[in-house]
Amino acid sequence: MYETNLKCLNCGKEYELGRMFEGCPHCKEENFSSNLIVSYDYEMIKEKIDKNALEKRKRSGLWKYEELLPIDSREIKTDLREGETPLLECNSLGAELEIKKLFVKDESRNPTYSFKDRLVSVGASVARRFGSKYLIAGGGNLAAAASAYSTKYNLETISFENLDESKQAILQTLSYGGKIIYLKRYEDRYELMKKCVDILKGHPVSSYTPSPTGDPYSQEGYKTIAYEICEQLNWDVPEKIIVPTGQGFGLYGVWRGFTDLYKIGLIDSLPAMIAAETAACGSLTKTFLDKSEKIKEVFPKKTIARHVVAPKVSYKAYRAIKDSNGRAVAVKDDEIMSALLSFARKEGIYSSTTSAVALAAAQKLREEEYIDSDSMVVCVMTTGGLKDPDHIAKNFPELPPPINGEWNKFKGVMKTYYNISI
User: Fold this and answer.
1) What is the pTM of this model?
2) Which one is the CATH code of 87-112+222-393: 3.20.20.450, 3.40.47.40, 3.40.50.1100, 3.90.550.10?
3) Which H, E and C letters describe 255-280, residue by residue?
């Protein structure tokens, strides 16, 4: 067990390891809550982990890096074979964007098809340590992941869902046995989730505070994305990492993964983190554009990238950009859809609209020359396109009507609908 305490990311105050899900009480203000992070004994970790040791380890996935995660090695680890997802070199798309070294980390290969599995794997393990019987989720892909791990490890998931949530995510959650509660408004979750935590002793894998704080333990699961990227690149460090960003826990988790490796001496440089937001929200983009010391709250509009919709990003997300000398960028729905189709047609990979936010951001930042053509860039593809086909389907024309087996009918359809003369 290498974790030592919880520490406030803002004021530095330390706390004993325990059930703290609402940020730092010491520096809390009316419109601000700082995130807590898990601290580790890095000197002890250095004695256990080096490049050779990692290469020789037979275990794969998250628990290959267990010294850097908040779980006692004597505990039963929650494991559905998450992690160890491919890092895809995208030469065709890279040529189109004029980025010579473009990679995509394909998180759709996880057990429930999203990077949320990394978070829940750690969160469910810690929940069992604290004696929790419930995982409390804020809907969507996170609810699906929580439900999958719950059913395997004798827990229950209660999920608070928005009315416009993806039907695929809902069906997935129900199939695993998750209990769904629909909400009229996004903010209705705050008090209900808090009561589930306080009264039911549930373990929240989503945040329930207006300034997103959440569970500091489960969010550590995202760090393993950075560990895998570095190993897959033979310990080269990309110049830019682009992460689709809602509340920003994934963004900070990936950043902290790189800083972990830097602290224990496995890498000698750090990337700039880029928060890719939808223009329908853009809390972090607005904060940096306004050069504000306080995180801006926004009023989200409808968008095809519904899984990165949040009124306000976390302080963690703000620090990931600030500490890495990175950037936040917001992209429009038409840019997102264009990027999704380019990725599918150039690389044969079907991403979600949420994941395509990162690809659209890469294109936009290349056009602005923030990204050099020689830069190594990694976009995190958080989930696959089968998660939200309803939004994607709206961007295609009507399919041709059925025909009989006549050749001339076939030729007519090809010409009329696809502009192909045969």
Assistant:
1) 0.95
2) 3.40.50.1100
3) HHHHHHHHHCCCCCCCCEEEEEEECC
